[in-house]
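ok so I'm stuck.
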Amino acid sequence: MMAGGRAQEAAYRRILIKLSGEVLAGRQEFGIDSARVGSLASEIAEVARAGAQIGLVVGGGNFFRGVAAAAKSMDRVTADHMGMLATVINALALQDALEKTGIPARVMTAIEMHQVAEPYIRRRAIRHLEKGRIVIFAGGTSNPFFSTDTAAALRALEIHAEVVAKATRVDGVYDKDPLAHPSAVRFAEIDYSEVLARNLRVMDASAVAMCRDNRLPIVVFNLTVHGNIMRMAKGEPIGTLIH
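replied:
not stuck anymore, here's the structure
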């Protein structure tokens, strides 16, 4: 039961949602669309009120894409650190939007910046979740060469999430890119090993392998359809289940 006696409606007790940075840009080429962030925060807050404890990992593509051309000539470690900082900007925007809905949120960064956010400490993150706060994990893993997909899988395992929810612009995992191939076929369910063997690229291979090795299911669903976050949280058969 939730505080105040409200019945738990969510099928999962604890969820790690992976968002791309691009989704925060809305229809803009890059940056943050405040209306899109506000709408997204409202959907996430609704799931929190339904009883789920929520962790978020957000990418930085909406900012880093603007400097991607310049980054190609940079040292990879420097470029990756720039991308990590972009995720912190997005995390702060989400925190602000979530708290405007009345849901408390905390940003925890893998790269310490005390004036901006809390450092990531696993036990403290779990305590925040138990207190009903949404935790936004920023700064990736703090290590270059690792994507935010891998950070999402890692944080999900560390906080004992029951599922990784990968929010995308398509409604699941297909046998080929559905945006380029109209004949692409969507999988309702698929095994981790098949995702890796067929190189389906729904998530980084390291993230999929980490989930496979620890039997952590992944749900891939379309974030652009309003209400899909709640449908996913209730365990409705949307998108693709990787297990």
